[in-house]
Give the backbone structure.
Amino acid sequence: MKNIKNASLSLISTALVLASTSVFADQNSDANSHEYHDADPRNSSLRAAVFSDDEGELKLLAGGGASGLTSDISQTVGFAEYYTQSENARLRAAHFDSFGGVYVDVYQLKDAANMYTTGYMLPLGSEDGTLFFPSLNYTYVDGGDAYSTLNGLGVPLEGNEEAHLGSVNMYALHPWNDTHFSVFNINLGSSYGGAEMQVANLMWLQGIKTKVKDKDFNIMFEFKYDVISVQNERGIDETSEEVTASIGIDYRF
């Protein structure tokens, strides 16, 4: 099942070597006076979005947040996602302050598993305006049927009903101008307890900001490559790969 694979892959990840451009800690002296880019994870404005992939599944998203809860520069963000065909649901929340950002991610994969992720993210900026968000993550997977479903192959595994995964992730945002921007994300990860699995995800997103009756909308084109390897009961790795294309509209209130 494609959406279960993609969901699990996006929860775990590895490091991307930073580009040769110099980087620096990206903190603002006054978050209330700073306007974050729509694709910046720290943006706490209200939002509603709908995405459709190349197989017709819709992802519905809504959320928002607040600034200044713990300091003048803090940002608190949360949102929910729902997938119409698979009926999967996801809740995410993050809090950013001078120390960086901490976040939690709860993903319910219908009839398969529950996934719980927590992590630390460090916002970095560069002289050309590119923003980097490296993060370290831990994911706990709870569900005996999840592993045969994750790779879409239906292979029997060793009977583990849980997995513990460690990972790192790199999210990068580059605004080309006031209307066009690109996002790149890479994550790779591996389990260190429970079911044996290795996963990877690459994502490239192109965004265009436009106006409809004086309202700002982001039109986004997303391409993803996912791969997962799961060890079956005979100790043989079973691997599955997939490429997904999506288009979406994101409205910021």
Summary: DSSP finds two helices and 14 strands in the chain.
